[in-house]
Design brief:
The protein is an alpha+beta fold. The protein contains nine helices and seven strands.
Length: about 210
Amino acid sequence: MKKFILILTALILCISMVSCDGSSKSALDRGDEIVELVSEMVKSDEYINIMLGNVSLYDEILAEIKAMDFSKVTAIYDLKVSQDELIEIMGANRGDIDKLPKSLKDRFVRGLGSSLASHINSKAGTEELVISSLFNASKCYVDKSIKENQYLLYVFESGYSMLISFIPHEDGAVTASGSLILKDMLEFDTADKVEASFIALGIKTITATKLK
């Protein structure tokens, strides 16, 4: 099972939806685009069959996700998370990230948002971790106003959420990536409850601000 998960994750990272453009839009506009990309993936039986084949193990959770209405967003939170803490939580404390070549360090930092979502989903179980990795979408664009990592948490009527990360690169390039969070212990009623939920999952330094 572990071997299957590793192979699946590697395949997903290779063919994850990625597109690029240079138009000027707000972070919320970009977040909406990521949500739409994930929605397309969820609705595509062909995509799911290609990625999973005839694995019935995930039928129940897939049915729940396919029943989601991604247009029904009940709240959006801006999350301020300590990058140093994220790096430590994701296992970089086993080595010195600053010793990595810049290209590899940037690659590691780019993946922090997806790694955070995976960290949370892993608390729910193997099925949630695999399925959340399946529905991961990204876009790249130019926005010189984004100077540091940003994170938005979209909350849906179904009770699930999506973590969208915005990672800046050289010359104003930005990568926006979205990952579903299928852990149902998160509470979204207020910013305080969002913070408390993340703290309970080991993310100690976090500030949530409700945008919608």
